Amino acid sequence: MNYLDIKKILACSIAISLVTIMLFNVSPTLVAHTEASPLIVTLWADQNINVGSVSVWNDGDNVHVEYDTIDGWLLTYTHLYIGKTNPEELTSAPGQFPYHKRHIIGVDSYPYVIALDDIDGYHLKLNKQGKQTGVWVSNGTPGVDVGDTVYIAVQALVCKIFCETAWGEGDEFGTNWAMYFTYDIQSTQQDYPPSACFTWADADGIGVGTVLNFNFSYCCITSDRYHSSNGYILY
Predict the structure, then answer these.
(1) What is the C-alpha to C-alpha distance for residues 8 and 167, in angstroms, rounded to an integer?
(2) Dihedral of the CA atoms 44, 48, 49, 55 (nearest 10)?
(3) Vertex 147 angle, CA 207 and 214, to 5°
(4) What domains can you pick out in the chain, each with its CATH number?
(5) What are phi and psi of 219, to 5 degrees?
(6) pLDDT tens digits, residue range 51-70?
């Protein structure tokens, strides 16, 4: 058996393993955190009252952060931080968050749409003595790409019979029970298997990528122990 045969055997083994994983549906989601399958965190009021959730996803241009309340709770004010700086390096004052909205008539849902090109880092302004103040200043280097991690803090004033401060669940920071979580910017392009062994075909007319053509001829002919054939595998 020569070196080329060994390479083909390894390629075939890897390819078959990938197909087996796909068929048994244990592979990772190819396109994660879409509108249909967002990242969701609980919206907590007064630290222990579940008043709803916050959903996060991105498309090719924007990050979407949507507040949704339950059980009659209404949003009367929302503050959102999304940025490249860990808020532990800043303050937990919602008034400094770059995005905010007053809801004069309480609402049970509110979406923020933030352009990927607008997401920036922040630092604390210095006073004349060179000491940090509580004022946030943008770094002036906006923009994030696929794979970048951003920090998100969601705060709201929610009301029903009475009003409470609410935060999206995550790690605590600042001088109160403020919380933040992280989000990785997702690719909106489906990651296909190596084209040498896999090709995608629209054989059933539904759309590209619905049927997978596994090229045994290329990947699995290494010696007399392997035979040549082509097979369609439903995906």
Answers:
(1) 54
(2) 20
(3) 35
(4) 3-29+190-234 (no CATH), 39-184 (2.60.40)
(5) -85, -30
(6) 999 999 999 999 999 999 99
